[in-house]
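Worked example 3 (structure in, sequence out).
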């Protein structure tokens, strides 16, 4: 976890510690929009059954795609920070050997 003073120092990144929180907030938003789309599709079924069914299916598909996209983007951010940490470790090893 990070401390408040970490916000004002540049010795370590805070993004890896808070990316999981942002991920779950995005998942919650995706699910809320999906539920909204499902209700919209059900309401549209009263007027046009085929149109409502299409809206219902597209809402469900967009929830699945949104969750997968959120996970991929969160993992991408974490991978970038891990690469940075590993490159720093390699650099430190090179400095210790006198290269």
């Amino acid at each position: 976890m990070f401390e408040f003073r970490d916000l004002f120092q540049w010795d370590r990144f805070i993004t890896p510690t808070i990316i999981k929180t942002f991920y779950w907030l995005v998942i919650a938003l995706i699910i809320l929009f999906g539920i909204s789309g499902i209700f919209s599709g059900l309401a549209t079924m009263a007027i046009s059954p085929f149109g409502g069914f299409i809206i219902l299916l597209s809402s469900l598909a967009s929830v699945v795609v949104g969750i997968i996209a959120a996970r991929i983007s969160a993992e991408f951010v974490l991978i970038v920070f891990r690469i940075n940490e590993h490159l720093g470790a390699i650099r430190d090893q090179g400095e210790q050997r006198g290269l």
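Notes: Residues 49-97 form the longest helix (49 residues). The chain has two helices and no strands.
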